[in-house]
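Form 12-C: Joint structure prediction
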Amino acid sequence: MSTSELTTISAEELKPIHLPGAIIPAPPEESDTSIMRIEIGPAHPAMHGIVRLTTYLDGEQIVGMVPEIGYLHRGFEKESENSKWIQVIPYTDRLNYVSPVLNNIGYSMAVEKLFGVEIPRRAQFARVIMGEISRITDHLTCLAACAMEVGGFTFFLWFIKAREYLYELLEQVTGGRVTINWTRFGGNGTDFPDGFLKEVEVRLEKVQEVIEEGDQLVTRNKIFIDRMKNIGVLSKDRAISYGFTGPLLRACGVPYDIRRADPHLVYDELDFEIPIGEVGDSYDRFLVRMEEMRQSISIIEQAIDKIPYGPVMTRERYLGYPDKKEVYGSIEGLIDHFKMVMEGHHPPAGEVYQPIEGGNGELGFYLVSDGSGDPVKCRVRPPCFNYVQAMPELALGHYVADVVAIFGSINMIGGELDR
Amino acid sequence: MQLVLEFLALSFVQDVLKILFILLLFAMPLGTFMTLMERKWSAAVQDRIGPNRANIGSYRGRGLLHIAADALKSIFKEDLIPRGADKFLYTIAPFFSFMSAVAVFAIIPIAGPIGDFKFQVTDVQPGLLFIFAITSLGVYGAVLAGASSNSKFALFGGTRASAQMISYEVFLGLSLMGLFMVYGSTQVSIIVEGQGEHWFGLIPKWGVFTQPLGFVVFFTALIAETKRAPFDAPEGESEIVAGYFVEYSGMRWSSFMLAEYIAIVGVAALITTLFFGGYQVPWLYHWESAPQWLVTLLQFGKFTSFTFILCWFQIQIRWTVPKFRFDQTMALGWKKLLPVALLNTVVTAIIIVALA
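Section 2 - Result
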């Protein structure tokens, strides 16, 4: 095959297609070979997770892009409909696999909303602490990958090291690093082990050190700024119309945070700031996430100061298993336990939408119950679905090397995107 | 015995011996060692341990055996030629890269001359012009690999490499203009000889002191010329995967990698020669009664250690800074390095005229 065959693209291939967000360049004049199509992904080192970006290039410049998702589709929603309510929790671990605690919390809160119960205060604080740790791991992963895409490999490994400190914390409480399956309806599966909160403080200090160190290495580096600044700019209005949430919307200058807008758990008792960006480019997204980690650390410290003693699981019979003492000691306990195991939870009929601030933006669970043991509908609103849709607009007019910088900064997580 | 000595005295035989010595005992071992050094040093920078698993029995040698393991592995790997590739060009492309990386050592003196005998394969009269010619040939390696692989990513890498390397050739040449003027020749032996002098008997008259600007531009241009980070847009591992050699496998792929590491040593050796006095040991002239063998040994040691330090410095750069985008690489060259190099040439000329 000659070189010209490689680069020639037929007018047929440039027909507009109906995929959300797709941008296709106008068909070229006769015998014009200036447009070249390359497939970035699905198997490409920079497409963490699996996604395909069909990119049209004029020289090195991007003139069109078609994002294609679905390579990691596992049928989460359908699978949930065929499971008991409680059996969905392990599935949610696999949604955003770098911040599994937040997915657990989001789903459990949605079901609790269906039941209309409030969980004990200690459990709420525990969820805040674990959730914020999870948010930090999410941001650490995203920033690390983002810097790696533009060549900061050392930064990548430093942040992954810091993430490891936090994963070990999660492991102490939940027994797992990624697939943690920690929350229950009406509380949490386990309480903190002895001395855990002290350990958290020690580890957070170490993480803070790594963050500041990484900050010095990369944030004011001329090459890094050149690669990130004014790359992938999105205006406020466009961001809102795309349905952006979370760090990406805040980077565009909209101070919208669900922890503030719709305070769940005990976020209204905690003091934290919402960092916002100015122009909404990759660099702003980087800085916003950087600052959010510092805020998360401060949130955790406040929560540790305020966390009360008490149970971590509600005493409502229809939510949790009865005590083992009761199961073996009384007939009511045994029957309750048996029914819970065999039939599962029975939330009242109705529908509910519960958004929480996930690591990546608004993570929403829309649940429909008909009063039976299985969910009728379990729909997830993944934050990064909207981001990938905006990918062509973000990348248009930039160079092919910027695709990875932009893609790194929007933090697409395949498990959550394709579900 | 007599016959052997006569045979050794033949200049042809001496050349062959020198080539073997410099290649097999200096460039290649250092180049292969760099593959491990890079992994080990990057591990140290990144709070890791680095490779330490390859072993013979219970002997691990702090990861040294990985060099052998890597070589063995790539020899036994399948040598794939992608469908639709131009077989001939695809096959010969690695040789261009490898050859141009190795040929740099031909004009580098690794120790001072003893009488008529020079520790240098050939002291060609055009001197550094030879380097420019050889590095230009290196462009063919990347371009042919990129064009013949029948892959769009490789094509990208090839075009980027050709544009980048041809542009940086310009600054490479311009940045040395000052040096040529200061030492009055392009011949390597004369430049190194000139760096043996001292100002006030104290500061060695090294190129880095006489030509600080030239040094910065030359070092930058040379790193870009060898496509090392932060100028590795032709490889662009994150966006175009591995650039021009993305389709290569087995030993051909290894030749590209090895060429890169030998080029690191080549860059270091060249900069030592031109800007750090080459084999000249500073202040050695105070010790007039030093035996010749010791002086030669010291010179070789000084040259090798400086080469080694500069190799380390290049690796440290790679693991510290992010990468330039391709257009930024070009902008840096044409908008910043070119004026600086020209300024350096003019200022050097004015100073030389004023002093004369």
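Section 3 - Comments
Chain A touches chain B at residues 1, 3, 6-7, 36, 38, 40, 44-46, 60, 147-154, 157-158, 161, 217-218, 221, 223-224, 226-227, 399-404 (CB under 8 Å). The longest helix of chain A spans residues 121-149.
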